[in-house]
């Protein structure tokens, strides 16, 4: 090739797809060839002498004294931003359905679907925020820009609820007129303005969500002896801040709305978001940053194109030189360490297969092993967050169905009457309690069973969460059957907005608390799993997987509702579907049991995926002179077998 080359010996790779020597296949060692002439995947090198995953300051320069940055103090500023963002998110999700029904005079079902679509789009589009952060701006600047957009959207919603010209006439619009659909409908331009500011808010949330957890985790030093413990605690406290924001949204914001109106309620969300922005920017001198690694989509495309172009080339071809990698410890990708070769998705290895005619300067023909392994990791991660979509479906259904149940029940607690819209606070309270007792109760008990120093592995926690969610939705079906029978027997068949004084709404606490426990185990475990397993330069996209799963769950809930309404709507005089607006004549119990069956199938799929998942060990690259193999004057860089972070074990929840 005319350039100085070095070779890296990888773990031995089975060629020919057969390990039986009697059938003529052979086990060979693959060599990674390194070239000093190789350019980066985007035609540029590193700035400031910073390579790999080394933390830098806001200017992209090495941090002189890393001990004066990052850590728990920096994380506290990030917790504050996430708390306000979640407060606004849940404040909108719980209040917007009622606002569209009572103020904009939209039917309840269409209001619920509109809010579900808003929640789904804001989560599913999180991959865009992750892409921008990993490719160009970095996590800090992505959060800074999108949190400002978020604030602009909340301000627009506040103006909508405050200025009368943006809403239809409220005169002569009482509860009876609402139910009969006799109130003045919102004008098309009024709905257009509402949807515009709502989706601007969702766009802001989409940019923040995949970056905040990853940016917070970036504040801890990977080289620290206690790094894994710090990371585990960080994600628990991170979700605790999410929970606190939700609790405030379900209580204080609802109280403000009841006492001072919709404008004050939405205005409080905007004020909280503005204060959190100030807090986030105040912590700027303390933050550790990671260099954006360039467009991950470009790198993925390069691997796919290069592998396709060499699809007919055999690993046993005489033209085969080796698998390609860069020299030394630095990767071709900013913000990333090298990744050792694995045997998964062998067809993609052809993207790094170097032939004699390859000069190593065209990344669309020849990719590095690290670049290929990034794509493999992204593919291997997909089944796990995909299995959490069902949990998101249940959470989305609870936001509307459980509130409809609560309207028919007695919400008095002694002399205090709890507003129906406050009912979703109870999952938050159960999450808060569980996280408070997690390290003092759950970890010691589970450690005794699993032998894991953290109580349970990440996939085990996700599995526990999915299992508990099945119990929650099954109980919801049992209680709904009892509630409906009670309503029919006591003459409430047509009075679906009249509370039954002898049946307490606090029976709903069982399903609420169970789903809260499921959420904390599943989502916290998933966030930590995606952060640790994702490639170094794609951690925001890895975190976006969780948000995308949540968004797809919202869309799936809307589609499922439409299918169930269409299929179960009766013929002739009886045209009530399972999800009738009159909950007493509908069959919500059947719908909950349908969700239970779907959850059981999903849990079986998760067990299968988790059993065959192998945790990614962190690679340790070493450079050494191996005079004995090439003689004096030659130097080699070897990728040694990695030291696993965790104790090796094989369980139903993956190989470690």
Automatic annotation (TrEMBL):
Residues 1-10, 623-633 have a biased composition (Basic and acidic residues). Pfam families: PTR2 (PF00854). This is Protein NRT1/ PTR FAMILY 6.1. It comes from Datura stramonium (Jimsonweed). Belongs to the major facilitator superfamily. Proton-dependent oligopeptide transporter (POT/PTR) (TC 2.A.17) family. It is a multi-pass membrane protein. The chain crosses the membrane at residues 87-105, 117-137, 144-167, 192-212, 233-256, 262-282, 377-398, 418-441, 462-479, 505-531, 543-564, 590-610. InterPro entries: MFS_trans_sf (IPR036259), POT_fam (IPR000109), PTR2_symporter_CS (IPR018456). The lineage of its organism: Eukaryota, Viridiplantae, Streptophyta, Embryophyta, Tracheophyta. Residues 1-25, 623-656 are annotated as: Disordered. The keyword DNA-binding does not apply. The keyword Cell membrane does not apply. SUPFAM superfamilies: MFS general substrate transporter (SSF103473). It comes from the Eukaryota. Keywords: Membrane, Transmembrane, Transmembrane helix. It is found in: Membrane.
